[in-house]
Write a structure and sequence with these properties.
Blueprint (H helix, E strand, L loop, with lengths): L5 E5 L5 H13 L4 E5 L6 H11 L6 E6 L5 H7 L5 E5 L8 H8 L8 E2 L6 H14 L3 H29 L1
Parallel strand pairs: 1-2, 1-3, 3-4, 4-5
Bound molecules: 5-O-phosphono-beta-D-ribofuranose.
Length: 167
């Protein structure tokens, strides 16, 4: 097993159905990663330990998914200078708006890059992590380019099919 470069962390295993898309995307790009459930408020010691040791363990990017008053990404970012990408998880009393605002509205000094509050968020977070890693990995950059080319072809095929159907 290759050493993980990306840490994919979620606040609860109830986040997994959504967050698994980040895992699948990283897998599809051949990005070695680890998956953990760590809560900023239920397991604060583990959260601190995780980010404090992340860089020394070889991680290069952390993805942090949480719902509710989502502190996880900010708490992990506080303990490391590795880039942290926050994934706000939909749901909760306010539909996920609280998670989006808690994740995206970091006060000054400790940034969290935040992806959309939607089903596309986890996959986009994984792609962004891969793009960061690809700065120093030409083979990964090629795989990202191939993925872009494949989705371009898909849209062109959909356009053609719809125009033919309506003709
Ligand atoms: C957050 O609270 C988690 O990230 C999850 O999105 C939300 C609900 O957690 P559970 O009550 O389902 O464990 O910490």
């Amino acid at each position: 097993m290759e050493k993980p470069l990306v840490g994919l962390v979620m606040g609860s295993d109830s986040d997994w159905p959504l967050v698994s898309k980040a895992h699948e995307t990283l897998d599809s790009l051949g990005v070695p990663h680890e998956v953990r459930v760590i809560s900023a408020h239920r397991t604060p010691e583990e959260a601190h330990e995780y980010s404090a040791t992340a860089e020394a363990r070889g991680l290069r990017v952390i993805l942090a998914a949480a719902g509710g008053a989502a502190h996880l990404a900010g708490v992990l970012a506080a303990g490391t200078v590795l880039p942290v990408i926050g994934i706000p998880v939909p749901g909760g009393a306010l539909g996920g708006l609280e998670a989006l605002l808690a994740t995206v509205q970091m006060p000054s000094g400790v940034p969290v890059a935040t992806v959309a509050l939607s089903s596309s968020g986890p996959a986009n977070a994984a792609l962004l992590a891969a793009e960061i890693l690809a700065l120093g990995d030409e083979a990964l950059r090629e795989r990202l380019r191939a993925r872009r080319a494949a989705q371009r072809e898909k849209v062109i095929a959909a356009d053609k099919a719809l125009r033919e159907k309506l003709a």
